[in-house]
Write a sequence for this structure.
């Protein structure tokens, strides 16, 4: 009888064991190890020396790190300013009952979200090219001289933001649409009878009711924005970015670890990045009233 | 009068949305036509409808590069990643959804919080780990260390919380062991959830460059992502080949999506479920 009870007590752990084992080996341990490594100078794998907070002190004086942090922040802000309003408006337009062909449009706008980020990067190298590039050709139609998108430092973040806008609009429309379907149509009917105009409906019904999903998209945009790696890595092959303007924190971390083989310093960059994301998320949660709930 | 205004509105809306949709389609079209252009014309002419089309860059992919091997590697790595992540998330999610054990809720929160920690933090330790284990350039090394998903666990737990408890208890009364119950009753009921997560995990691997880039070092071991990245990182990239490689890598995903749109949208939008709770 006792063994029967013991057996039953073990059951949940049998189910949990595979996940927990993987979680401890490939998540918990690497996190602890990253903190440990960030206080070391690593010379090749296996030999390292304790150097205290030297790596962290160096980060603050490292112009490349500071500039990569600023670039990544600008990129994140640019994606928030474009990838929240545009997909939101499109989602609302695609949601109108009378819009003909809306299913097809939604599918077409979603296709970019299926392309691998590596592919997106290669395609935008062509689209943003000086000569033969599509964006410059379109600007030319309006009499605007071609811009050197991939060569001018001040256009690095805008280039990355254009790429992101194309890649993620469809995805964010999916999130916003799922929020829109939860709004009962009767609310709109009632407001219309009271004579409310479309803009008022959007401002006073739609926005407040899908606020949770907006907060969610803002959150994943911030976390994803600060982690951006593939897009700048492909858009600026060989790390040839104009005046390091396209260098993001993640690309700098990769370069430090796997080009300069400075593993301890790279670990410190990783810890700093985690800290930045944590801090920005806290601020954002505070703003959106997340903690009140 | 009112009716007419509404009709005008929907016609305007139709044209606005059509323009936007076509705009979003253009880069994909650009990729395909660039793959079909002779390489010297890619940067010299802007043509919406190129006059000279050629298939010459496609056979080169297979002759001078292990492109077929990249395809195969992508399949193997993705399958391994999806299988392990799905299995661990489903079993673990079931434990959290249907059993009571000490420290359950705290453990669940701790696991979820780690989802916020950027993978980059773990990159160097994981690389050192697989180097020591001699797993660099192996398929296992290419997917196993990243195949643990707190979000997957969360999603499967939510999915299984929706199962009918009475039904499970009835099976227990009938004398089914917990493991048989899971295999024979639970698994068939959660198939849509499994499909959604399988798609979510596949696309996750499809967009991951960082890990395969450090784990898979030799050309014959590359998945498509690392292979295409290596092509564009050459001193003078052959853009017609890069575009051909990108096109062949993209079309299958689009085709599968068009066939299984509902499952894809559920899977890719799965993160949205974090909001409902």
């Amino acid at each position: 009888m006792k063994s029967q009870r013991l057996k039953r007590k073990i059951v949940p752990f049998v189910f949990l064991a595979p996940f927990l084992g993987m979680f401890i080996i490939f998540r918990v341990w690497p996190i602890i190890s990253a903190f440990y490594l960030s206080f070391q100078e690593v010379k090749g794998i296996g030999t390292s020396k304790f150097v205290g907070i030297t790596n962290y002190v160096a980060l603050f004086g490292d112009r490349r790190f500071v500039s990569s942090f600023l670039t990544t922040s600008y990129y994140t802000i640019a994606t928030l300013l474009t990838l929240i309003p545009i997909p939101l408006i499109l989602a609302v337009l695609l949601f109108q009952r009378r819009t003909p062909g809306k299913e097809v449009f939604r599918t077409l706008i979603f296709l970019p979200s299926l392309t691998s980020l590596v592919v997106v990067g290669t395609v935008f190298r062509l689209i943003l090219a000086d000569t033969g590039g599509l964006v410059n050709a379109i600007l030319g139609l309006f009499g605007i001289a071609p811009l050197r998108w991939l060569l001018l430092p001040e256009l690095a973040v805008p280039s990355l933001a254009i790429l992101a806008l194309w890649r993620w609009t469809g995805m964010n429309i999916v999130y916003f649409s799922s929020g829109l379907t939860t709004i009962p149509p009767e609310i709109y009917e009632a407001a219309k009878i009271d004579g409310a105009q479309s803009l008022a409906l959007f401002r006073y019904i739609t926005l407040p009711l899908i606020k949770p999903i907006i907060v969610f998209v803002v959150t994943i945009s911030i976390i994803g924005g600060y982690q951006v790696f593939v897009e700048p890595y492909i858009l600026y092959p060989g790390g040839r970015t104009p005046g390091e303007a396209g260098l993001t924190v993640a690309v700098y971390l990769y370069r430090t670890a796997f080009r300069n083989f400075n593993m301890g310093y790279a670990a410190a960059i990783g810890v700093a990045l985690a800290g930045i994301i944590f801090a920005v998320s806290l601020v954002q949660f505070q703003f959106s009233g997340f903690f009140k709930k | 009068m009112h009716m007419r205004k509404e009709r005008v509105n929907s016609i305007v809306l139709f044209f606005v949305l059509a323009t936007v949709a076509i705009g979003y389609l253009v880069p994909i079209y650009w990729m395909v036509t660039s793959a079909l252009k002779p390489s010297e014309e890619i940067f010299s002419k802007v043509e919406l409808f190129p006059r000279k089309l050629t298939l010459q860059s496609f056979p080169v992919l297979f002759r001078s590069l292990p492109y077929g091997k990249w395809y195969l590697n992508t399949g193997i790595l993705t399958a391994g990643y999806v299988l392990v992540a799905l299995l661990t998330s489903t079993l673990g999610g079931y434990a959290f959804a249907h059993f009571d054990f000490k420290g359950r809720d705290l453990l669940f929160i701790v696991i979820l919080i780690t989802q916020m920690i950027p993978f980059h933090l773990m990159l160097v330790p994981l690389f050192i780990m697989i180097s020591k284990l001699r797993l660099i350039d192996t398929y296992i090394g290419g997917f196993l260390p990243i195949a643990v998903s707190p979000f997957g666990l969360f999603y499967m737990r939510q999915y299984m919380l929706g199962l009918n408890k009475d039904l499970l208890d009835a099976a227990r009364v009938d004398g089914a062991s917990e493991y048989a119950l899971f295999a024979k009753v639970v698994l068939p009921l959660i198939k849509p959830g499994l499909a959604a997560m399988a798609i979510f995990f596949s696309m996750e691997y499809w967009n991951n460059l960082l890990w395969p880039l450090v784990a898979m070092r030799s050309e014959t071991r590359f998945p498509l992502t690392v292979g295409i990245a290596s092509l564009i990182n050459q001193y003078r990239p052959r853009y017609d080949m890069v575009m051909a490689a990108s096109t062949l890598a993209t079309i299958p995903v689009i085709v599968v999506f068009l066939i299984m749109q509902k499952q894809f949208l559920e899977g890719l939008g799965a993160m949205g479920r974090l909001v409902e709770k």
